[in-house]
Amino acid sequence: MALKLFNTLSHSIQAFTPLDPAGKKVGMYCCGPTVYDFAHIGNWRTFVFADLVRRYLEFKGYAVTHVMNITDVEDKIIKGVRETKTTLREFTGKYEAAFLEDLKTLNCALPHQMPHATEHIAEIISLIEKLVARGMAYQAADGSVYFSIEKYRGCGCTYGRLLKLNFDELRVGERVASDEYDKESLADFALWKARVPEDGGVFWPSPWGEGRPGWHIECSAMSMKMLGESFDLHLGGEDLKFPHHEDEIAQSEGATGKPFVKYWLHGAFLLVEGKKMSKSLGNFFTLRDLLAKGFTGREIRYLLLSAHYRETFNFTLEGLQGARAALARIDECLGKLREISGAAGFQPANSHTHERQPAGKMPALPATHFGVSTLQRFSEALDNDLNISAAWGEVFKWVTETNKRLAANSLSANEAAAELTAWDKIDSVLGVGASAKIEAPAEIVTLLEARQAARKAKDFKKSDAIRDELKAKGWAIEDTAKGPKLKRI
Ligand SMILES: [Zn+2]
Question: Measured in angstroms, how far is the CA atom of residue 58 from the centroid of ligand 1?
């Protein structure tokens, strides 16, 4: 069955056909983090969704090039640099490192390319030059360069493809300098922002004087550089449809005259405990806040992946407890299968690596009938606009059925190994990891590291005290040839 996805551009579900005439290569761009703060759980829903799309395309045999930019210069960042009296690099470096760490914690495959806006100023300037040359951009009296919506529309192009905009009711023709604005203030938007004193040391030379790029043009320049003027997939949270993505389309198509992106995919919002996340309501969580509460990246990933990407999802702490229980069910089943498979040659599941994986063909299906049919139904569910709930349904049907077979002692070592292989293929998409790996909360890992440091310093009194503390928290240390391992007591 062919993969079908909801394309925001056509406002409908469409069969996915890559631009590549051979139907093999897929270019995929996901708007990455603006590194001015720790990413919150709503941001993570989008990034985990992008990871699912990439993994599933790879499962289907496509050779995906996944690009995610790092927005390391925009309005909020400049404000942060000013307030913290740091340099741009110091300020963004801290949050970028945290982002990469969080990406790993959630077992998201590292994008193949992660371009930084500040490293693509030349490409951004040349794209703006093209727009100026085509009459679609102009320098205003404030020194900044703006995109002209009127000129763009005058060339027969449509502004308002992802959202339907009613130009009769909107005040078109005014200018907006800030990166974020709502559709009521639809206006010519800034491509290049002339340097102002508040920018401090953040500016670059350009044909229009010193300044810095607007946020929207950064994504157009970087995505087209990495993936070409036309590419297959562009993803982001639904809050980015306007103005960010609408502006990306206008700038890119305005400059090249070619269709920019074939399929636009948008992930829905996330509520926390039934309400919109806000710091004042106490329901604003970064990934780190949840790890500090004792949840693991795997549990958080599971919960973020439990609902359809186009549905608003209510993220709750109770849901995380549910995720823990669901994963324990899977783990228990896998543990038993491992015991039985014994020497049957099962290799532990390869939790998605942070390196590029060669795109393979649709995985060879294991020999057991049940594994075959589960994988087929799992894939059919995801082909249907990534119907993840139905896909999880197949996983748990498989767990129930396998448990029955285990209880009846009806599985041979080879059959158990084949079921594990089936799971391995399923998990190449879900990425919730094999149970072989025990994931400890950050606090426990920190204690383990402190114990190692104490042992290195030959402070055995301290290292023993830490071991006892870990024990009191329910974790034992096993010293192995490969170093210490944590085990749940
Ligand atoms: Zn973007």
Answer: 23
Q: How far is the CA of 32 from the centre of ligand 1 (A)?
A: 7
Q: Which residues surround ligand 1, an ion (CB under 5 A)?
A: 31, 219
Cα–Cα distance between 297 and 318 in angstroms, integer? Answer: 16
Helix (H, G, I), strand (E, B), or coil: what is residue 193?
A: strand
Ligand 1 centre distance from Cα of residue 236 (Å): 8
Rounded-to-integer distance, Cα 436 and Cα 39, Å: 29
What pLDDT does 173 receive?
A: 63
Ligand 1 centroid–CA 338 distance in Å is 44
The CA-to-CA distance between both ends of the chain, in Å, stands at 46
Write down the pLDDT at residue 375: 93
Q: Which residues of 326-339 are buried (b: 16+ CB within 10 A; e: fewer)?
A: bbeebbebbebbbe
Taking alpha carbons only, the member of 52, 50, 49, 60 closest to residue 2 is: 60
Q: What is the pLDDT of residues 367-381, one digit of tens each?
A: 556 677 899 999 999
Work out whether strand 145-147 and strand 137-139 pair parallel, antiparallel, or are unpaired: antiparallel
User: What spacing in Å lies between the alpha carbon of 243 and ligand 1's midpoint?
Assistant: 10
The mean pLDDT value of the chain amounts to: 90
373 Cα–ligand 1 center, Å: 39
Closest by Cα among 484, 332, 330, 334 to 394? 330
Q: How far is the CA of 435 from the centre of ligand 1 (A)?
A: 36
Structure confidence by residue, pLDDT tens digits, 265-309? 999 999 999 999 988 888 899 999 999 999 999 999 999 999 999
CA of 247 to the centre of ligand 1 (A): 10
Are residues 211 and 144 in contact, defined by beta-carbon separation less than 8 angstroms? yes
Question: 3-state class of 25 per DSSP?
Answer: strand
| Distance of alpha carbon 41 from alpha carbon 57, whole angstroms | 24
pTM (2 decimals)? 0.85
Q: Token pair for residue 154?
A: 């005058």
**430-485 tens-digit pLDDT:** 999 754 444 566 778 788 889 988 998 999 999 999 999 988 887 888 787 667 77
